[in-house]
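Support request, priority: normal
Reporter: lab tech (M.K.)
Component: structure prediction queue

Hi team, I submitted a job for Peptidase A1 domain-containing protein from Sphagnum jensenii yesterday, and the status page still shows it as pending. I've pasted the exact input below so you can check whether something in the sequence is tripping the parser. The sequence length should be 487 residues. Please let me know if I need to resubmit or if it's stuck on your end.
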Amino acid sequence: MESLMIRRAPGVLVLVVAIMLQASTQICLGRQILSTGSGRPSDDETSTTEELNYDKVLKSYWIHRDHPDSPASAASTYNTSSQSERIAAAARRSLTRAEYFSRRVLDARSSGNFDSPVEAVVVGGEYAMAVSVGTPPQHFIVIIDTGSDLVWLNCKPCNQCIVSAPHKPFDPTQSTSYHKASCTDAACREFPTPTTCDLGTGSCDYFYGYADLSYTSGIVANETFTFTALNGSSFPIEHITFGCGENESENGFPGTDGLVGLDLGSFSLPSQLSLVSGFTDIFSYCLIPFGGTAANHSTFYFGVPETNISTYTPMYPNTVIPFLTFYYVNVTGISVGDVSLDIAEVLLYISPTDGSGGIIFDSGTTFTLLTGVVYELVLQEFVRQYNFPIVSNYPYECFDVSNATASTRPPKIVFHLQSVSGAELVEFVLYGENVLIPSTDTGVLCLSILPVPPGSPMVIGNIAQANHEMVFDRANRQIGWASTRCT
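Reply from support: The job had stalled in the queue. We restarted it manually and it finished. Here are the results:
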């Protein structure tokens, strides 16, 4: 088994899960969480958490998707594109993802259909993950998607495979633990999209489409997924429901063998792992800023049962459109610097009449997305306080900071959220590296916030989440964070 070489470079992030690591691979058992405050904490404010030494905690690493060593490097444009082009591509993917969010709401409002969604999130390949499937294990690289709930792989016999898949399709005939779901199995009846019964074979056939018109279709099945725990031991998890895909969009999932959904839907990987005895329904990650150095990597955990994070906000369901299983939160206001913006609360909440709007945390969206009125208020106040010329030849807001000094700091942007108790507010703070990202052009910094049409859920994206320890405590329906150095 090969160890994973983790390197980083400017671009979009990629997740590589440390699965089936060599015994010589070192596994970190502690993390440093920094105190929160009005400014970015310094290194001398660290306090080390208790050691995590659990047999059901999975550790992983994040690197930029565009790096030449990325497992999705077959689809990488790192060597042929500039930083500006990569930023622009990330912005386009973020806006396309926003179009998907909006379409999901509009489709539900127009059809009145509150069953499971037919379309899942846009597959932009923001992250990828290594998985080991079957007995004996077969190894694959799959896209991670926080906006969908299906786990699926390229499978034999593959009538139409992903052209640039890094591995051969999963071969069910070479696995003693493979089990094809019958038409009467719960996995078939409760599948996230409509299924059909193959009268000839008795198999449960599925079709799962994505908003960018890519798709997968094949057979609903159960398999054993093998992971490596934080304490270094490996263990198999049986009966993971997945799609054994025999027909995929040829170019829809470049550089990968399949996809793993992470949302709140019942078929996502975290939802299925939560059914395993002793496995806590939590995942967490810590992202290095967009311009982080290649020597560092970000961490990701499944099943962390405890942390020293004390700042939490509740997850809120979309009660009007319950199948929208995104990670909604209740933002009550936004500040720029020390100025609280005059934003009508109705612009921040999920609409009680049609389920539109609201704000979600999404690691699969690069930029932070705000609807028009909210975006304009944030932008106007930011420009007023950050008094640098706007560069006009960019498709988004960029600033000429060639005359800035070393002490120049952009104003922080603060999301004010309801606390778990409801008695007070908590703050999610976007510091300099969360607000501005460097362009290829010397002396130019670009705002990591984009406008989206009214009705679309607003998004706190992965640039905003960088240098925050993020905890998605699904068991207690809350999201927590602490300001930290993700190095």
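Residues 83-111 form the longest helix (29 residues). Residues 13-31+54-286 form a domain with the Cathepsin D, subunit A; domain 1 fold (CATH 2.40.70.10). Let us know if anything else looks off. Ticket resolved.
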